[in-house]
Amino acid sequence: MKSFEVNFDGLVGPTHNYGGLSYGNVASQSNSQQSSNPKEAALQGLAKMKALMDMGFQQGVLAPQERPDVAALRRLGFAGNDAQVIQQAAKEAMPLLVASCSASSMWVANAATVSPSADTADGRVHFTAANLNCKYHRSIEHPTTSRVLGAMFADQQHFAHHAALPAVAQFGDEGAANHTRFCRSYGEAGVEFFVFGRSAFDTRYPAPQKYPARQTLEASRAVARLHGLRDEGVVYAQQNPFVIDQGVFHNDVIAVGNGEVLFYHEDAFLETERMLAELSSKLANVGGKFQSVCVPRSAVTVDDAVRSYLFNSQLLSRPDGSMLLIVPEECRSNARVWQYLQGLTSSGGVIREVKVFDLKQSMQNGGGPACLRLRVALNETELAAVNPGVIMTASLYDSLTQWVERHYRDRLTESDLADPQLLLECRSALDELTQILKLGAVYPFQIN
User: Which of 292, 295, 322 is nearest to 310 (CA)?
Assistant: First the structure.
């Protein structure tokens, strides 16, 4: 039976704005308060999805969230009808309104952690929605995320869904941005790689001093237990606290893995040699041959990596066994990074080709190609059980492009978020989107 890695990309929402909400994310903070272009952002993301589909990769779509989140504002004490809630929040607590309008769910690498059926005890694909409790604007995402994933992967014979972990600091969970999987082929048992920034209970692990470590060891272990993973099929590694303090807020800003390959920066991890040896040994036990590609700090600094998002790239397997690296335009704009990539692809190693995409709207808010996608390994039977409305086709691409053109603004500033009409526009767009993607009622305004 054939198996595939399907990339489900987040569709950028109508309220895409530069709120500067993510402390520790250099791009998010640097571009705070600039005007954004939601229409351009959504079209850039769709263009990447279509291009990968045209290259022969399996591609899907993950819907955005309802914003502003009026229910979240009501829980914080704002009262009245929807328009009054928005206007009161804008007058009394604009930062809370900005947070309730965030379109950060576009970065679906943070939506959930996914374990394929070949790894799990019950032979189903397991999903655990990320609690994202480090940032308020992201912590309100997981209820809708769970409903959307449930509508996409509804067949209980093949798919199992777990609620987000307890929303406390000890179990901070950022989803697949700190998780990857190594395997010989997508349908065979593999090794799941969990990267954490700190331990909540074990003081032996050092912590960053400037920026928060968003993923805890305890959260990673809890997800592994929920998914029924074997100890022999799991490796835990600690992210280097020094690089977190330089703006590497998730592991996918400093490393990316796929198949049997880990592409990482020299300063990405603590105890790197021990970790590589464990990955190699455990992957060999299931028939794989682990390969690592280390980018030396002498060629690319951590600052270069953060500014270019070199490692927040998609590493995709070609039929001939070689790898394709999907990078943002910022990599070509950075002379050192681009020089390194030219040398990498001409060296005869496993990464043979680089393709560049313009994702400026997402990049300026702190998310690159890898942030925009949630990887789900599926066999033929499981893929057939996925809601077909969310699988990218030429027809769906055309429908979504036209949908964006109809519903999205081409300019959005902080003052625009106080306009109650924006909520109505968003709801109208999402109501139509659920019909295009065949999701049913997944948004609060459709349910209540």
Answer: 295
Taking only the tens place, the pLDDT of each residue in 147-192 is 999 999 999 999 999 999 999 999 999 999 999 999 999 999 999 9
Residue with tokens 């086709």: 393
Give the whole-angstrom CA distance, residue 67 versus residue 70.
8
Q: Residue 441's pLDDT is what?
A: 97
- Do residues 182 and 259 touch, judged by C-beta distance below 8 A? yes
Reported confidence tier of residue 57, pLDDT bands at 50, 70, 90:
very high
Q: Cα(366)–Cα(31) distance, rounded to whole angstroms?
A: 9
DSSP 70-94: HHHHHHTT--SSHHHHHHHHHHH-H
pLDDT-derived band at 348 (thresholds 50, 70, 90) equals: confident
Helix (H, G, I), strand (E, B) or coil at 182: strand
Which residue, among 232, 201, 195, has the nearest Cα to 215 in the 3D structure? 195
Secondary structure of 347-386 as H, E, C letters = CCCCEEEEEEECCHHHHCCCCCCCCCEEEEEEEHHHHHHC
> How far lies 303's CA from each of 226, 246, 262, 309, in Å?
36, 7, 20, 10
In CATH, which of 3.40.190.10, 3.40.710.10, 3.75.10.20, 3.90.1150.10 is domain 3-67+102-231+362-447? 3.75.10.20
Q: Is the predicted pLDDT of residue 223 greater than 80, yes or no? A: yes
Residue pair 90/417 in contact (Cβ under 8 Å)? The answer is yes
Question: DSSP letter string over 306-353?
Answer: HHHTSSSSEEEE-TTS-EEEEEEHHHHHSHHHHHHHHHHHTTTSSEEE
- Report pLDDT digits (tens) over 20-31: 554 444 444 454
Consecutive H or E run containing 129: strand 125-129
Other CB atoms within 10 A of residue 212 CB: 17
Task: Give catalytic residues, as residue numbers.
Answer: 174, 250, 371
25-51 residue pLDDT tens = 444 445 445 788 999 999 999 999 999
Report the pLDDT value the prediction gives residue 7, as an integer from 0 to 100.
97
338: left (phi over 0), alpha (psi -120 to 50) or beta: alpha
* Phi (first) and psi of residue 318, to 5 degrees: -85, 155
3-class secondary-structure state, position 186 = coil
Q: Which pTM does this prediction carry?
A: 0.95
For tokens 């769910």, name the residue.
105
* pLDDT interval class at 98 (50, 70, 90): very high
What are the boundaries of each domain within the chain? 3-67+102-231+362-447
